[in-house]
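hey can u run this one w/ zinc ion bound, need the C-alpha cells asap thx
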Amino acid sequence: MKIFLFSSIVFINCLNSVFSQNQQTDFKTKYVVILVIDGPRFSETYGDKTCRLSPILCDSLRYQGAFYEDFRNNGPTYTVPGHTAIATGQYQRISNTGSSLPKNPSLFQYYLRSTGSDKSDAFIVSSKGKLDVLANTKNKNWQNKHLASTYCGPNGNGIGYGKDENTFEKVTELISSQKPPHVMLINLLAVDVYGHAANWEKYQEAITKCDKYAARLWSMIQSNPTMKDQTTLFITNDHGRHLDGVKSGFINHGDRCEGCEHISLLILGPDTPKNLSIKKDGELIDISKTIAQLLKFDMPTSKGRFLSESFNSKP
Ligand SMILES: [Zn+2]
Ligand SMILES: [Zn+2]
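ok here u go:
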C-alpha cells in the first residue's frame, strides 16, 4: 500500500511537470518579424555609449525588450551566409552572390508546412535581390516545396539592389493588408553598401536611417489592429565589419574578427520582459529555433537554441 501511494505521488508530480511545460509554451505571439540591418559595426550602434548614430534603438527601444550584449555570427560573416544562418538555423559556406540555395530547409518552409497556410503567409522582403534564395533549399525532400513569397531587389524579382525606402514601402503595404504575413524577414542594405563604398559619412547616416526604420516598423506593428500585442520583432544583423586596424576596417567584412562577428539582437514583443540586458551567449542560428518555439512548429534541422531567457514562461 505504501509503495502504491508513493508511486501515485510520483505520477502526480510527473503530470504536474508536463502540465507546467505545456503552460510554458502558451505564448501570446502569433506573428513574427525579423528585421536585418545589413552590416553595421557594433561600435557604431549599441557599442557607442553616447548612442549618437542609433539613438532610438540604443537609448530607447532597447529598454522596451530583451537586448543581447554579445550576440554573434559564428559562421561566415557575409550577407547570404548570415541570412542563411538566420533562416535555416545552420551555418554554411554558401555563395554570397545568390547563385546557390541553402542546404537546409528554412523556418519559412517549416512554418508553411506545419500550418498549411498560403505562401503569402510567409514573406521575405529584401533590398538585396540575391536574398530570394532564402525561400528554397537544395534538400531533396524540401526543394520547391512550401516556398515563402519573396519581394527581393528593386523589382521584387530577385535581381539587383533596391532602395531601402522602396523595401520599406513594400513592408508597409504587407503589414497594412487584410492579412499580414505571420512570418516576415526584412533586409535593409544601405549601411553595408555605403561601407563598401568607403563613404564614412553616408555609412553613418545609413545607420541613423535604419534606426528610424526600426522605430517606424515597431510603431506600425503596434498600431496595427491585427498585429498589435501579438507580434514579436527581432532586430538583428547578418554580420558586422572589420575593426579599425583589421584589413580595410569598416569598408569590408568577412573574417572572424571581433568587428565582423559581434552583432546585435533586440527582441520586442508581448512575451518578452522590458529592460532585459542579456549577457548569456546568443547567435544567429538561435533565431530560427526561437521562432519555431513561439509559433509552435518543429524545426529539427535548426542547430540553434530557444532563447528562453527572453520570454515569460507564462503570459
Ligand atoms: Zn557587405
Ligand atoms: Zn573582420
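Confidence is low (pLDDT under 50) at residues 1-23. anyway lmk if its weird
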